[in-house]
Every structure is written in C-alpha cells, then in structure tokens.
Amino acid sequence: MEFGIQLGNMEPAQYRANAQAAEALGYDLIVFPDHLVNEGPERQYDPKSLAYDHIVMAAAVIEATKKIRVGHLVLCNLFRHPAITAQSLMTLDRLSGGRLVAGLGTGWTETEFKMSGIAFPPITERLRMLDEAMTCILSLWTNERTTFDGEFYKFKDAIMWPKPIQQPHPPIILGGGGKGLLRLAAKYADYINIIPDAGKRGHISMEVVKRTTDDSLREKVRFVRDEAKRLGRKPDAIRVSNFIFSTIISDSREATRKTAEMMAPMFGQTADGILASPMMLIGTPEECIVELKRRAKDWGTSQIIFTGEVAQDEKLIRKLREKVLAHV
Prior knowledge:
This protein is an alpha/beta fold. The chain has helices spanning 12-25, 54-64, 82-95, 110-116, 123-142, 179-188, 206-210, 214-230, 253-267, 271-275, 285-299, 309-312, 314-323; strands at 2-6, 29-32, 69-72, 75-76, 100-105, 146-149, 154-158, 172-176, 191-194, 239-244, 246-249, 280-283, 301-306.
C-alpha cells in the first residue's frame, strides 16, 4: 500500500521541511490542493488561510526531495487551459526525474469562482470540459501533433516538446464522488480518490458528508469498476485512493470509543459508523493498523492520503508513520 500526505496552508519553508521529513520516513507521495480559498463544510473559511500556487510549490518540493512522488489532489480544470496544464505537468515530471502524479478534477468550490469572476458552469458542463481536457492533455503528452475540435477546446496541429519522462504518461488521479466523475475515472484514471460529492452543490455539504460511509464507498468502488469493465478496461486497473480528512491516534480503546461516540451525533452516524468512515481514522495504533488492513481488503484500497493536522506537523507525520503505517 502507498501512503501520502497533502500539504497546504503553511509557509514555503515548512512545505520543504515536511516533504523532506515524509521522504526520510518512507512516505510514497506528497500532494497539494488547488484553491484560491481553503473552504471547509458549509462554505466556512478563514480569509487569512494560506493559499499558494501549488504548481509552483510542487516545483519547490521537487527540488527539495530526491525520490518521493509529487502531485496534486487535485488541479482544478477550470483554472487553466488544458494546453497549459499539460505543459506545467510535463515540466514537473521532467524536473522531478519522472516522479509526477497528475491529479485533476472538475473544480467545486463555488466561492472562489464568484470572488474571482472565473466562469463556474453547472456540473454536467464541467464534467464534459474535464473529459475533453483529459483527451487533449493525454494526446499532447503522447502524440507528435494534436488536432481536436471539441465543444470547449480546439487544437490544430498542436505540438508539445519535450514529452513527460514517464511513458506513456504520468499516472492519473481523478478526485471526486459524483457518478459523472466516477465515469471519467473509469475512462482515464489510474487512481480514483473518492471524497464527498461537492460538484453539483458547489460546496461541501454536511448532508453529503453524513452519507459518506463504509457502504457508500464500497458502492462507488463497484460502480467505477463496473464502468471500467464496460469500457473495455480491466476493473482493477483503477486503484482506489482513500483521502483521510481527520486522523486521531488514541492512547486506549476506551479513548477511541469515547471519541467516536462524541463525534457520532455530528455526522448522524453510530460510533461504529464513525470508526469505519472513509473520511476518518480513529484508534490506537493497533486499531488503526487493523482498520487500514480492512480497507485494503474490503474496498480494494491501495493508496491512503492523509490531510489536516497530521500532515502539517513533522512530529505527527513521524508518529503516524512509525506507530501505524510501518506495520500495515
């Protein structure tokens, strides 16, 4: 299993330090978000939260490390024309010596589009845009010339040189939770990172968060793999990536249970449901090890990415690795 952390909301020196710590500890992947506003559930955000250009920050982390893979979870397709996205990611792949993981998504945080004036079409249109963008990016990476006459993007004998180091192209992560995005993952992705569906609403809704359960994730994994089979791909060609928003390593089983019981009413779930939630990892080191192994068995998870406090603090990055992940 691969383990990664998502870095955000910190100063550049801390990005480098945390990335170097993660690499030294044997983590596999560093990823970054792609937002103008770091928004939480129900459109809550701190206007002073740090939101750097994470293509630039990825380059800084690449230069500060030697072997850990680097990418995004995920780049917003609406922020850049696919020719620019393809060029930026090709550059990162070559800068890193072939360590890029290319993460893309439709974009979902309506707040940042309203404040910037960037167009924010309905989710069905954004999905069609991402579909076309993926076609164009992959063609630019793999073909001598690209001609494409789409609904949103048009290329005529377009060239891109050099090509990415990784052939035929860097691995693709698509992130999201709605069926439209899952269909695109079945078509293009090497990894699907399943999170609560925010695309249609334009924000993270607690209603949807409450419906993000063990059962719902299993159903989405089945959907992606059935769709991949329908498209002629091997169902297991798309690996399952689990994004954990909150990690709490407790000192005892009693503390684990107390934490789950305290959180359960907020999410409209039982304590057992909280402990099996795809969004969380709560337990003693031994309980966390058992739970991560269960996810690999029941969901087919082959990649876990941690965000939040555990990814921001070097001591917690070390504790998570040494106490839990080294034993999974």
